[in-house]
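Summary for the steering committee. The consortium agreed at its last meeting that each partner would contribute one worked example illustrating the joint modelling workflow. Our contribution is presented below. We chose a case with several input lines so that the handling of multiple components could be demonstrated. No manual editing was applied between input and output; the record is shown as generated.
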Amino acid sequence: MRGDEEKRVTPLKVIYIGLILSGTLIIIALISLSLGPARISLKDILNWFIGYESIDQTAWMILFKIRLPRILLAGLVGFTLSLGGVVFQALLRNPLAEPFILGISSGAAVGAIIGIVLGLGFTFGIPLLSFLGALFTILLVMGISSRHGGLESSTLLLTGVIVNAFFTAVIMFFISTTSDSRLHSMLFWLYGDLSQSKYVQLSISFPLILIVSGIIYVFSRHLNLIVGGEESALQMGVEVEWLKWISFLGISLITGVVVSFSGIIGFVGLIVPHLMRMILGPDHRLLIPASALGGAVFLIAADTLARTIISPSELPVGVITAFLGAPFFIYLLKTRGSQWTQS
Amino acid sequence: MDPELILKDVHFRYNSQWCLEGIDFELKKGEILGIIGPNGSGKSTLLKIMDGLLKIHKGEILLMNKPISSYRRGDIARCIAMVPQEETFRFSFSVSEVVLMGRFPHSGLFPFEGKEDLEITHQSMHLTGTLDLATRSIHELSGGEKQRVLIARALTQRAQIILLDEPTSFLDIRHKVEIFELISSLALTQGLSVIVVSHDISLAAQYCHRMLLLDKGSVYKIGEPAGVITADNISTVYQCPVLVDKNPISKTPRVTILSKRGEDKEETV
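What follows is the complete predicted structure of the assembly.
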């Protein structure tokens, strides 16, 4: 049972849950840091951390040049995709909405690939085109699937599937026809590849993601009202159209940026927000930070699995998230679909 | 006392054809005004216009003596609350969370409620008899319970005017009466001005101070229930033969539909 007066969302509760999830995030990151083909035990890392013991040059290289940037990227990507999921689910009033399912991730990927073909830089140019690709896709999907001012679930999902199929074809076309050697390595990238993480990318995207999520958090109560219907939210004083534009721009911006670094990773924005909603309830003042942090935890765990499960070889992380996410999606559709598909 | 809401020669259209034409009336303080009329006569549109959700093309709407177009959305929300016919929450908020949402127009940037908000919420749940439902999910409620919760949310908005869009449509007779009793007591004890759109003509006639009969986007008749609900008016506007007599207890007009199959199959609405 949740939701009675005492279990109402208060600032204290948000901080409390935030601290628990941040703690989990640090623990999972440390565990992930210790796992890999080269054995560096957690105890060694912790001892080095408190200055009790030194580690050798090779171990240092592995930890800070290979594993840490990858873990940080996984955290940022998971954070962003999960945040995108929560926001889309509220704004579109559709629990199955998510950047990957709506085709926004592949739209961003097409933008990134066009950037690569044009020879733009990996730090600014490609993320910018990726953002434009994401924004274009949001507007496209909304334009195709909105009827009588409402977005019906089945139409929205079908539109996402079609847009996804089309963009995947565009990506394959670019990969197959160009002789650019960089593109050939991108086949892996279609299912998510976090191994190319660089500190410079992290240092640009981190503040951006922080700012956008901060702005979105200010509107968390507005999102609660939108869940009850756009018209009733408007009636109670929410500037619905304005809020939609702010959110779509913000989410496309950060989704575009992370997709250009990580490739297409599906279902994070579906699995994590739903789990959090089941545990913590639908209030966005708690759900937004919990989902974002939970998304970071989830993707770090998934990526650790992806790079260790068939070691010394690796899986794209999107394979892991799809293995978990697709059955979860079907489960949601089967058990709660009827409640959601009525418009 | 000045009327709360005044409509002067209001015109509105969705496309080329006028949907509302030359609407003139006022809502007095503490009054319950019932709006009736056939499907498509513009009742819901009229409600949205009065709430400033749709912009009119001609005429004027004065809210507390100022044009409604001069208000910002949040300001209107502090004066007017709307109870929609139905509202689908996609995620299972609890009843108390939904009622608490009514405090939104009164809050600043800090996204959490204070003690006063909780007290007001408790009060409106007490008035609507929804305290027992507080921890239930909005999805688990019956039609009547949900309608009461939406009214509680509107009360939490602490607006002087409440607009209700067919609050009794999906309810059985007991719950229909309960909703009208609630509306009536709120107008009396809280001094609220209420506009209620309804298809339950006879029932509305028992509770409304005045009634407005809408026909194809124009006011056909407005006034006390006995003057508006006559066999002539209802038959003409609804294009359905009816008999109107007096409710033996409340002495308010009572409408009986005259079925075409014979007089033994009559039904009261």
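The domain at 9-37+68-336 of chain A is CATH 1.10.3470.10 (ABC transporter involved in vitamin B12 uptake, BtuC). Chain A has one domain: 9-37+68-336.
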